[in-house]
Design brief:
The protein is mainly alpha-helical. The chain has four helices and no strands.
Length: 114
């Protein structure tokens, strides 16, 4: 079996293609402090998301019940990661909707014995 020679991490703060390529060319060993900061951010995001979701939902139910009912909304969810994730989904859906097929060739081969 192949044994891994180490763990590496790509460091990037942008999803821009050249930035990702540069990060993959300059892989680095993970650090414990960065790992702990990621863990802390995850916990903060979760607590913030839960708290703000509850706040927004209760506020809208108290002040805009008719809108909540007309849209059949029971909860209005908030999370710091939801906006970027939604952007990826919307971007991909727009790519699908605006896709224009390009003609291509298919090569078929028939082999006969004899």
């Amino acid at each position: 079996l192949l044994q891994p020679k180490g763990e590496y991490r790509a460091r990037f703060s942008s999803l821009h293609h050249p930035d990702l390529k540069n990060a993959m060319r300059a892989l680095q060993s993970p650090s414990e402090s960065e790992s702990k900061s990621v863990e802390a951010r995850q916990e903060i995001d979760l607590k913030l998301g839960v708290s703000f979701t509850r706040f927004v939902t209760l506020y809208l139910k108290q002040n805009f019940r008719h809108v909540m009912d007309s849209l059949a909304l029971k909860v209005v969810s908030y999370g710091p990661c939801q906006a970027p994730t939604l952007w990826f989904c919307v971007k991909r859906q727009n790519e699908i909707l605006t896709f224009v097929p390009v003609p291509f060739w298919v090569v078929s081969v028939e082999v006969r014995d004899g």
